[in-house]
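S1.2 Input.
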Amino acid sequence: MADPRGTQAAARWHVDAGRSSTARRGAGRGVAWAARGLSLLVLMGLLVRPAPTIAAKPTPLGPWQLVGVTDGVTVHTRPYPNFHVPQMRGQVDIDTSIYQVFAVLDDTAKHKVWMARTRDSALVKKLTGWDRFIWTQKRTPWPAQDRDAVMRVRVHVDGKRKRIVSRFRAVTTPLRPKRSGIVRMPRLDGSFTLEALGPKRTRVTYVLLADMGGWIPDWLTRLISRKLPLRDLQGLRKQALATRGAYDAFVRRVNPALGGTMPLDGRPTPPASPPTSQAPASQAPPSTAAPTAPGAAPTPKAAPSRPSAPPAASSRPGT
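S1.3 Output.
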């Protein structure tokens, strides 16, 4: 007769073995699902990687829209991205030479005489003849505060197209610290383009983009966009005609037709080289002709030099 205790032990062993087998199968299935989940996460990571950054293209500017023609001055505006004030453009023809108009623009201290709403203006620092920092303060109607800006002005001369372009841009510099009660304009960019239509006629195109900074009422914003180019060009024309003769020294210095030299591409005229001993004709360096500035006459070619005669023998003894 079999021992009942052995039978019970064997039964318990079979139950425990079944449980262990089930546990092992469950653990195996868990490992397999975990591996599948990990693979899925890796695959999803590969699929959803961020796309490479592409630089945004600048927003194209729209066409100029005519505001009006007043007193011979044509004014256009157009919306500018992220600006509540539009970009402005004015154009006028002035019956004087391009160098006379340029002389008025070059006289920074007199900008307050003819530029609209300009309380004060000054030259801050001259880097070269046509590269400088200037400062301007603008009157602003109550209740807004006056504005000011420090700008870097660079001049480019295109002799072939008979143009002088003066570009200005507001900059941040310690050369002229901010003053209490005056708002420093974060942006004031633009240009004056002078085109010689003839010896005594000049076309001026004025482009301006201004961020006045701070709070500006809407009515003042509309006033600026419509009136500022008109008033500035009216003032420039009046000043250029009223000061004829006052800038003769400046005009002679820059007008090639009067013997002057106009620096090109914003570069100053290089200083004269110190005198050196004359090299033989065979070793003389070739001459280089400078580009022609607006209104300049072609430089005549020099006639070839003839060899000098040998010195005559001296009749004095001992020489």
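S1.4 Remarks. Residues 40-52, 265-291, 307-319 have pLDDT under 50 and may be disordered.
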